[in-house]
Amino acid sequence: MIADIQISRLASAEADSKTVTWENEINTSDVSLPDDQYRFSKSITWGDEFNYSGSPDPKKWNTSTGNGYYGWGNHELEYFTERPENIKVEDGKLKITARSESYKGFNYTSGKIISKAKQRYGRYIINARMPSGAGLWPAIFGFGERHKDYDMKTWPRCGEFDIVEIKGQNDRRVNYNVHTENASGVANMVTVTTDVSLNQFNEYRIDWTPEYIKWYFNGKLMRTFSKNGKGYDGWPFDDRFDLNICLNVGGDFVGNNINSDAMPATMEIEYVRYFALTNTITKNGYATIPIQPVLSPVSAKISPNQSQSFTVTNIPANTSVHWYALGGNLGVYGLKGPKITVTPAMLKAGGITSGQSFEFFVDFVGVDGRSSKATRGALSIK
User: Fold this and answer.
1) Cα gap 123→110, rounded to integer Å
2) Which of 14, 76, 145, 165 is catalytic?
3) What does the domain layout of the chain look like in residue ranges?
């Protein structure tokens, strides 16, 4: 049963996307408010100039590892690592490199960083050089704070804005998208054909306000997405959003026809600059529950014919305990409350056999939908 939980963020149907030339401005919804209604800070509020060497600044970035559930929901083929072979800062640039190599059961490796800071509204300006090669998928995007990477069903309702996504097989096409409960997938995407190569450094920018998001390529307006009056499911962009930078290999967006000869292939970021919106009252954020579950045990090892129980001991008032595995909420299988028992039948249904580990997460969810940070658990099968 657990193995049947499968969700894909995107369908690979390029023909369904809107394609325009670089000179055109695209507005996919209501006419936006005049630019002069909103003002942005004249100095950088947050960002990274990458004027150092080594790993990405740990005060600013988290590094994502692994392949997630179903290839991060997209059936991607890479394994993200923290190794300098895949991600490093060098020569004044962040360099994320995809490699064709055997690693932990995968045929490709690459890297991904996620900002520790979450912003609400503002201007992002990012100078980047994109790699070419069929199957490469460089992306810079933000997830709303209600997103849980261990529960894929939180997407797309949490919201996502794609500052830029590139298909490595098309080195002059830039893709812009937003994902909400009401608007998601390639049918909502705008594709712009540029007059310059994406293999050189270009400037990617969004202006994000309480009323619209605007995309710019080298200073030219490419797209506007406006608040549509459809509530949170149409406009989740009043929450705080993180910033994700990654180079994927394969997956639903670019397909699995991989040009391994194009690797190693490197995505380079010269700077990330964020300028806060200065003349609006920012709403209270989607605050998380400050208490994190205390799990007992955190990990265990059993034989294939054994069961194992896990218990949460510090449940705050007015919250419920939620358990997750393989990208879905285990409540649909009756696993809820302060204590669950993982049985041999469950492990078999999830495809977990001897020599493997069963990874799961647990968090608290309030009556208003707020959630805590999750605690990770692991069950190893001898």
Assistant:
1) 28
2) 165
3) 2-275, 295-381
Cα(329)–Cα(124) distance, rounded to whole angstroms?
34
For the record, the structure tokens of 359 come out as 């990874």
Question: 20 in helix, strand or coil?
Answer: strand
> Global pTM?
0.89
49 is catalytic: no
Q: Could you tell me which residues come within 8 angstroms of residue 144 by beta carbon, excluding any fewer than 6 positions away?
A: 158, 159, 160, 236, 237, 239, 240, 241, 286
The CA radius of gyration of the chain, in Å to the nearest whole number, is: 21
CATH class of 295-381: mainly beta
Contact 190, 216 (CB under 8 A): no
Give residue-wise pLDDT tens across range 350-377.
888 888 899 999 999 999 889 999 999 9
pLDDT at 22 > cutoff 50: no
203 is catalytic: no
The catalytic residue among 14, 78, 145, 160 is 160
* Tokens linked to 134: 């069929």
CA-to-CA distance for 19 and 326, rounded, in angstroms?
Answer: 35
CATH 3.40.50.150: does it fit domain 2-275?
no
Assigned token pair, 55: 């790993």
